[in-house]
Here is the input.
Amino acid sequence: MSLASPSPAKIAVSVSGIEKAFGPTRALAGADLVVEAGEIVALMGANGAGKSTLVKILSGSISADAGTITLGGKTVSFASPSEAQAAGIATVHQATDQAGAAGLTVAENLTLNELCGTGNFFVSGRSIRKRAQEIAAAIDLDLPLDRDFIDLRPAERQLIAIARAVAAKASVLILDEPTSSLSSTEAERLFAVLRRLKASGIAILYISHRTGDLAAIADRAVVLRGGRVVASFARPIDFSAAVAAMIGRTLDASAHDGKPSSAPILASVKRAVLVPGARPFDLDLRSGEVVAITGTLGSGKSRLLRALFGLETLVEGGFTIDGKPWLSTGPSYSIVRGVFMVAEDRWASSLLPPEIPGATIAGTIALPHLPRWFPSGILNTTRERLAATQAISRLGIKARGPDDTLDQLSGGNQQKVVLARWQAAPCRLLLLDEPFQGVDVGARADLIAAIRGSQSGSATLIATSDTEEALEVADRILVMRDHSLYEADGSHGSLAAAIGSVEAAETGNVTS
Amino acid sequence: MTEQTATQARPTSSLAETARRYALFVLLALMLVGFWIAQPAFINSANLFSILQAVSVVAILGVGVSITMSAGGFDLSVGSVAASSVMAASYLMVVLQMNAIETMLLVLAMGALIGLANGLLIVRVGVPDLLATLATMFLLAGLQLIPTGGRSITAGMMLPDGTTALGAYDPAFLILGRARLFNTIPYPVIVMALVAVIAWFLMERTRWGRVFYAIGGNETAAHLAGAPTKAYRLWAYILSGTLASLGGLIVASRVGRGDVSAGNSLLLDAVAASLIGFAVLDKRRPHVLGTVLGAIFVGVLLNGLTMLNAPYYTQDFVKGVVLVGALALTFGLGKRKR
Amino acid sequence: MTEQTATQARPTSSLAETARRYALFVLLALMLVGFWIAQPAFINSANLFSILQAVSVVAILGVGVSITMSAGGFDLSVGSVAASSVMAASYLMVVLQMNAIETMLLVLAMGALIGLANGLLIVRVGVPDLLATLATMFLLAGLQLIPTGGRSITAGMMLPDGTTALGAYDPAFLILGRARLFNTIPYPVIVMALVAVIAWFLMERTRWGRVFYAIGGNETAAHLAGAPTKAYRLWAYILSGTLASLGGLIVASRVGRGDVSAGNSLLLDAVAASLIGFAVLDKRRPHVLGTVLGAIFVGVLLNGLTMLNAPYYTQDFVKGVVLVGALALTFGLGKRKR
Amino acid sequence: EGLAGAPAPFDKGGVKIAVVSFLGSGDWLQAFEAGVKRQAEALGIEANISQARNDINQERELIQQAINLGVKGIIINNGQPEALKDVAQAAIDAGIPVVAYDVNIDNPKIPQIEQSDADMARLVLEQAIKDQGETFDGGVVYVAGFAPLDRRYAVWKDFQKKYPGIKEIATWGVVNDTVAASVADQTKAVLAANPSLKVVFTPWDEFARGVKLAIDEAGVADKVKIYGVDISTSDIQAMREPNSPWLATAATNPAVVGEVSVRALAQLIAGEDPGHSVLIQPTLVTQKTLIDNDIKTIEELQAKFPAFKDSDAAKKDWIPAAK
Ligand SMILES: Nc1ncnc2c1ncn2[C@@H]1O[C@H](COP(=O)(O)OP(=O)(O)OP(=O)(O)O)[C@@H](O)[C@H]1O
Ligand SMILES: Nc1ncnc2c1ncn2[C@@H]1O[C@H](COP(=O)(O)OP(=O)(O)OP(=O)(O)O)[C@@H](O)[C@H]1O
Ligand SMILES: [Mg+2]
Ligand SMILES: [Mg+2]
Here is the structure.
């Protein structure tokens, strides 16, 4: 695609009257959208509004039931992703489990589009690595090229998918929640790349539930609701109006004031060293407290949570819960004793293939509680479905019922099911790793309310790369840097100032 | 909450789904009726029971295979475990002069032990399932012959050291394979029914079954949800090994001697039964009921063809054709569009 | 973006890794030396070439299996495709009196067609790989016998219609299996080497090979990245079918007649070869070089044991023991902790 | 340690031969190999014994391997001529004498040892006619592609031509891991479908066992009778069971076959001529003889029937008897 003469007024891609139904679910009910060259359009919408469905149609991975797509003035229809790519549409999909192939190296996954498309016929490890380096360099990505994709964390997978899409030199770039597992540092870096691409005349459709992201880069916001475009906002975008259009009510995303809690200490971390050579740190969690940890990619947030849950061991130091030493031997040990964890990668950590029993919403929620709910061993599906039905209504999960399999749900709704699983039983310590990935603002407020509401006698430790999110949910925010915890500036005044102080801590400009 | 339909958008989906669910039942019924018309003797109860008896061993082995499959593994050693059990049972009775009860217990223990060995190789050492059980398969195929130097085992046989074996098959042992309850139902059929019902209950109606399937679907997810996944996978192989040796006991008690065989055809038939089971009730996954039905399906086909005096070589062919047809029907109707 | 520390922080990892990479090579070398010492005739070039010749068919079939495996499938029909190819080649020459070239082309085309049928069943109809190829396996096991009513095909045989077959094996055809280049290297070995080199090049040095592996790793991801995944999977089965029929041609030209066989042992040996290949170079995935080495490994073992006059039943046993040992070594050393 | 008075190279000892069998397992093979070992030991021969396990291609490889090994002689036990002619010739070309048992290599330099499958089938079928008359509904268990079975089946076909009263109303059979059990299952179907069945010809004892099992299970032992081929200790016991339907079988002693093969090869190695064709006569064994003579094992059968125990074929003064 030649991008020699960027003309801001030129329409790069437009869709009109797109419809798509999955069984009785109408995911799209006549959506219209226009993206001009050199423009970044934010696509907003609650979970299950149909955003990803639209993306999948535009990228050729599913076909629409009705409607037309116009690309560069010509009506097109894509029978496969390769046709969409050939036509100049590059896509980063929401699901990080589809970002690359296991068994292939990082280098091979970075060049996957070329390998699967029309790259050089003859390849060698060296030629692939060389090309992969170029692709990675375009977004400043630095990953060991020989590592197997299966060993990557979701954030890294997401970055690979982004690098690939950026390298595709497409005329239309679609990003479906590209920053859902990235920290603000990486997200900033991505925005710089996107601005550069925009300047070179590429049309960008950007989907995110992080209003901060959208405020930073979007030229225009389009709100999708019930499979239809219901509102459109030009810059400067009025986000509270947009959110109202999305979820039908307004939200005030205020931070909790960090008044020091005097409740008894429930769990504590003592002189913990996460990796050899890291600085030891302490952490006290008080009963009823919600504490968030932020930090850049790979800083060790997940590692701390995993160590508490019994999936990893500390190099030095230890934990106590209720004053007694806590050394978990693994998930089953922890779960029995009321320590629950939601792992960061919901595909790898929670979802089951649709054909097996227990892949339904009811089964997913019940899985860790089976021994407690059914001590005799004999299942009682009514019990499971009751719990699921409650979760569906409490969290507003958009599904047809407790027997829906999770692959039929939108990304955000899957995440809600995964969270609902751990609210289905009383707990002492709840460990949430990136719990709000892909969850829309409305649902996030509901979830936060639920988490905060169930806090008596238990504590919650949240690892999140999104500072905004951390401020919204937590009583206290800590920053993880180089596998060690630092206290962020305790008193956050305005939201913006608070974000600033946390981000400063992330990059290490604050002494602690 | 709402009515449940599959993912397909077509309005016919519920019809197609019903067709898919029951395709194999309908085919089975058609086959029964067809054979009945062609050969009235087909439908008499003695013949129907002899079909069930004929498939019992394959069905029992198939149940084991499908349990390991549901836990995300694959047991290629079931055939050779069964074959070794035949040899072991004969050796215990004929050479070591044990009685029926001792023999059965020891052979079942042997099957469980082999399963345990498979499981440890897979879970502890980290060898991929197919690879580990393939190795066991070869190992057993050879091992079973070593005690007798490759001879089959019969009463009065000459041992490698030149002496004569003094024991014989315990008549009580032969009951398992040869006698009938109420003079009608062969014991192997009862054993098969028991195995099927218990395994079905375990896999579909208890939380343990759930966990087996969860492990097969996503081992990490099951582990994070607190399931002791390694223990479960071990148990899957132990169950499979025990069931295979149970199958071997039935063969031994029918045949009444220890015959040399690698068990390959038993393996393939058991795998076939559990794979055909995928299509039963449109489950698209291994399951006990499907496996048993798959075995019966093939058994009816072969019995009917034999009655009609079809040349033996057409049997494999017809087996293949019917398989392809049933599969195409089941899966073709349920094709998910992208 | 950020600094990356590897999870395996231990200093011994590179040593263990090297050990894992070359474990099978070292074992092979040890075996060669061991057999050489025990029986000097083992190492003469005629014997080494006869080992290679003996493994050529299994290696060629194994390459096909490993290609389908790398694309996330599994071809259970290779054994019966090879067996059917033997029958087909014999039928074409003996009954239809074709010459060597016609026969070879037709048989290869048949193999490709069967592969295509497998592929269509899997890709179009949506039957799971194992199930579809299992059905084909049974179908072919029967089908190959129908033209001759179950008889073996030899020159001058009686046909089912009572006439006598007029053709015979074309002497040119027998060259493929029986002659040697420069009177030293048997042609099957050359064919195997060619197949191995071409397949290795295809799988490791071309874009296509990477796509096969990508599909095996995550079909959706490969599809989203623009690969025509269905076409690739079809091609994997076509290649596998063609290679299996090539293996069948070699068998036919060695044996010089069409014999009834289901090809089960070929299947199991081919699968074993490609599974052992997982351990070669510590790749933990199917690959061509590993498959060929796996086949040679087993071939050397069996040849050496035969030379040492080991009873046949120890062969399977030793095969199993060595497999378990090699696997435990390779995988045990590289155990990944979760 | 050589054999005093024997021709070279046996006078010095250290002769190595290879014995390549097509079969992979079974009592017949075990007994054959036992016979080979006995006679080889008596002659001071070291025998390298290998089995192709029903894979004709493998049998070629094994013969090739024996040539590579530089043995002094090769015994080929069963197989198929088309596949073996050229490797057998290669052995001869390498100066290695070859004898073949039950496979017609069609080479003047290679003596053929035969047990005559045709004779065995004829013996037992004649007995069937003696017992059951010239008119009966018969069935045969048969799977094509196994050379001895093919030859025995051909005799059954000839009998049908000769005696039009014999009708083949059913043919069945299967060769798999559980031959006896699978054949029993099939036979039950056949019995249900063909109540008139009177005689079942089983050209392999494994088949006979399956048929007997089915007849016992169906409780028709007084109506349906088995005429088989081959014998072993467990076959003898099966025939002796009270009310056993298995009335007669015909067999050669596989151990004798093994001994004769080694003797013939030894003569060739010593430069003598055992003759181009060495025939081993089969023996008919009926239920009645077994019961009348109280024979319970193969060993007792050998003791009571010297013809079964030993054969005069390929004997020489310098060749010691096998022990
Ligand atoms: N394969 C499918 N089968 C059935 N229903 C589906 C399928 N895919 C999506 N849906 C339904 O279509 C609707 C729209 O889903 P979509 O993934 O487009 O939402 P989304 O706007 O991307 O939401 P999120 O913000 O949670 O990612 C949802 O109700 C979802 O349940
Ligand atoms: N599966 C893995 N394989 C290899 N290295 C890993 C893996 N998981 C974590 N690491 C390493 O451990 C360190 C800490 O990672 P961790 O996942 O705890 O970071 P994080 O702060 O949670 O980052 P993210 O925001 O990406 O989730 C990193 O240096 C990372 O490279
Ligand atoms: Mg989405
Ligand atoms: Mg993390």
Observations:
- The two ends of chain A are 51 Å apart (CA to CA).
